[in-house]
Specification:
The chain has 205 residues and is α+β, with helices and mostly antiparallel strands. It is globular and about 40 Å long. The protein is built from 3 helices and 8 strands. Helix content is 15%, strand content 17%. The termini are far apart. The strands form 3 sheets. The protein has a 4-stranded antiparallel β-sheet, with helices on one face. The protein has a two-stranded antiparallel ribbon with strand order 1-3. Strands 5-6 form a two-stranded antiparallel ribbon.
């Protein structure tokens, strides 16, 4: 995967960890579409996006950008895993994932490349709203979905080329890795079950 993007993802995981240390093992909450500054403009849900909540733990906001998506810059290129806590709370807004809920820390995907057009504004996505500061995968798969296009090609290069190449992912234990598919058996979106992205929950959940 793109080296710079992998560094960004790893730094994001570290920021999430610092945040959890300050907030009694809770990660930032998720909600709907958010814009930086809590502007209250159309499409801006009340409250702060996860990136805004995380900002005090970050040395610079440049780490939220993808080095491959520079024409024009994509302000926030990565998603936060909200699918797990969403599945546990009937997808109610403003819910925070707590670290003790997660069993598979080395396989649990906490963050990674956002390629879902519904989560991004033009020209990178389909939303007419201002750039989103809260991309998450609670309602739409942010990565590993049919027809997905990724900016990091199969050779690990970065640039304008888009194909079903490498996704940069950050895991709860702190490591970052590039994955070409969710079939590897090395990752899950669920905290205590090894579930593929096409599975919403274990049997009976």
């Amino acid at each position: 995967a793109c080296l710079e993007a992998s560094v960004n993802v790893r730094s994001l995981v570290q920021s999430f960890t610092l945040y959890a240390n300050d907030w009694r093992e809770s990660l930032p909450y998720w909600s709907a579409w958010q814009t930086f500054g809590d502007t209250g403009q159309e499409g801006d849900t009340a409250g702060l996006g996860w990136a805004e909540q995380l900002e005090p733990t970050m040395s610079t906001l440049e780490g939220l950008k993808c080095p491959s998506r520079t024409n024009p810059d994509l302000p926030l290129a990565y998603f936060m895993n909200a699918r797990f806590i969403g599945s546990q709370t009937n997808f109610e807004f403003y819910q925070s994932l707590r670290l003790p809920m997660i069993q598979f820390s080395t396989q649990f995907v906490l963050t990674g490349d956002t390629t879902q057009p519904n989560l991004l504004s033009a020209p990178w996505g389909t939303s007419p709203n201002a750039p989103n500061s809260d991309p998450d995968d609670a309602r739409w798969q942010a990565v590993f979905y049919p027809g997905e296009k990724r900016v990091h090609d199969n050779r690990g290069n970065s640039g304008p080329r888009e194909d079903a190449g490498t996704a940069n992912l950050g895991f709860l234990d702190g490591h970052a890795a590039g994955h070409k598919s969710e079939m590897s058996g090395e990752l899950t979106w669920h905290g205590n079950a090894m579930l593929r992205w096409c599975q919403m929950g274990p049997a009976g959940e």
